[in-house]
Specification:
about 450 residues, alpha+beta, 2-methylcitrate dehydratase PrpD, 60s Ribosomal Protein L30, Chain: A, four-stranded mixed beta sheet, two-stranded antiparallel ribbon, 8 strands, about 50% helix
């Protein structure tokens, strides 16, 4: 058998994960980690109200063992593995979970459900939970950045397994050798995901993030039991299987000083991220219109030019609420018709509305290669609406709202928390939960905190 000499970058990463302390994290990193957790929980709760999720919870827990961990938004408790699966799946249903363009996906909703579940079960401190989330997010995001994963592969359910595993291992107190083994084990436990699921509006796509949490926790358990991984499973999977290019230097460069979590975004529109540039351009256009509304009956054409990933979301024949969240034509039509981008603008009633469908048919969406060249540092979109009298109204987006260069205000994120949470939990529980999640560093026992709240 050939000798197993791990590559240096895995040693560097493993030592970093094991040695980092909360005091090592810059204030901005801790603040972002707080918000990633606080933003994820009500997003999960709202997604859990979907009929498919209610059915999934009922069937899954009917044959699962008992546990103490929140099934968020269901008012149920389960073991950590089951809760991570269910909460992770619900978290992407409404397309309101945070993400990171530089990580090429959504690290938070793949790490947070597993970390919260294990933190409850092991009754660790809130500070430990905060650190575990920050580390799992950061290292998995860097691994994704270092690869050029094929466009046909959906990023959910891939590197998120590594992030969830890191968070779990940190909460379990893994040493350096265990952590290095974990990276190699977890790397091979992702899914062969398909991006076509979102283009087809296929809701099986939502299990991908549930898979990350479930398999991340399982990977940590396997290492505890003595299972081993490849010598460099990370590079093999992310440089040969999911991608043909993997640059280890991008995993370690700036590690501990240049944090990708500080370059994340938060969502206020319940759509795929690449739709947001078009919505922002529309909002820019409407801000110049008296009263902020156009007479939709006078619209003759809606011309959109944007970067490649946004231009891919061109489906006009939308037939489901989930599919509506990945259609630029539908999003623009629904916002124009309803005057807002809230959940109701993307529900089944909105999808069935012939007025919205007629507006969507007027959208001419195409890639502008100059815009693609500016992505991901900018996310440009040009929008022009031609009216019946021949006049043209224009709107533009350069950097989407929520990106670090154009951030949402904390008050907007807080409002989102309560808008999603209060209908599920009531005002009192929502307020106590928000206060606790925003002050994790002062919490000696996260499990005890969770015991006092029924979510």
């Amino acid at each position: 058998m050939p000798s197993r000499k791990p590559p240096p970058y895995l040693d560097t990463v493993s030592r970093f994960i094991c040695g980092a302390t909360l005091s090592d994290l810059p204030a901005q990193v801790k603040d972002r980690a707080h918000w990633v957790i606080a933003d994820s929980v009500p997003v999960i709760a709202a997604g859990m109200q979907q009929p498919e999720m209610k059915a999934f919870v009922a069937r899954h827990l009917a044959s699962a063992g008992s546990g103490t961990v929140w099934v968020v938004g269901a008012g149920r408790r389960a073991a950590a593995l089951d809760a991570a699966l269910l909460n992770g799946t619900a978290g992407t249903w409404l397309e309101l979970d945070e993400g990171n363009l530089f990580a090429k996906g959504h690290p938070g909703i793949q790490v947070v459900p597993a970390a919260i579940a294990l933190a409850q079960e092991k009754r660790v401190s809130g500070a430990d939970l905060l650190l575990a989330v920050a580390l799992g997010y950061e290292v998995s995001a860097r691994i994704s950045r270092a690869a050029q994963v094929r466009l046909s592969i959906h990023p959910h359910g891939t590197y998120g397994v590594i992030g969830a595993a890191i968070a779990a291992a940190r909460l379990k107190g893994f040493d350096f050798r265990q952590m290095r083994e974990l990276l190699n084990v977890a790397a091979t436990m992702g899914m062969a995901t398909s991006r076509q699921t979102l283009l087809d509006g296929a809701t099986v796509r939502n299990i991908f993030t549930g898979h990350s949490g479930y398999m991340g926790l399982t990977a940590a358990r396997l290492v505890e039991c003595g299972f081993t991984g490849e010598n460099d499973g990370v590079a093999n999977v992310y440089g040969k299987v999911l991608s043909d290019t993997f640059r280890p230097g991008e995993v370690t460069s700036g590690l501990g000083t240049d944090w990708l979590i500080t370059r994340n975004y938060f969502k206020l529109h319940p759509t795929g991220r690449y739709v947001h540039a078009a919505i922002d351009a529309l909002e820019d256009l409407l801000a110049k219109v008296p009263g902020g509304r156009l007479d939709v009956g006078l619209i003759k054409e809606i011309r959109v030019r944007t970067y490649m990933l946004g231009a891919m979301l061109a489906e006009k024949n939308v037939t489901s609420s989930f599919g509506a969240r990945f259609s630029v034509p539908f999003a623009l039509a629904s916002v124009l018709y309803h005057g807002r981008s809230g959940l109701a603008s993307f529900d089944e009633h909105a999808v069935a509305d012939p007025n919205v469908q007629a507006l969507a048919a007027l959208v001419d969406l195409r890639e502008d290669e100059r815009h693609t060249a500016r992505y991901p540092h900018e996310q440009p979109c040009d929008l022009a609406i031609t009216l019946a009298d021949g006049s043209v109204r224009e709107g533009h987006c350069t950097v989407m709202k929520g990106e670090p260069a154009n951030p949402h205000r904390p008050q907007e994120l807080e409002a989102k928390f309560f808008d999603l949470g209060i209908p599920v939990w009531g005002e009192d529980v929502a307020k106590r939960l928000f206060d606790g999640l925003r002050n994790l560093e002062d919490m000696p026992d996260f499990g005890a905190f969770a015991d006092r709240l029924s979510l």
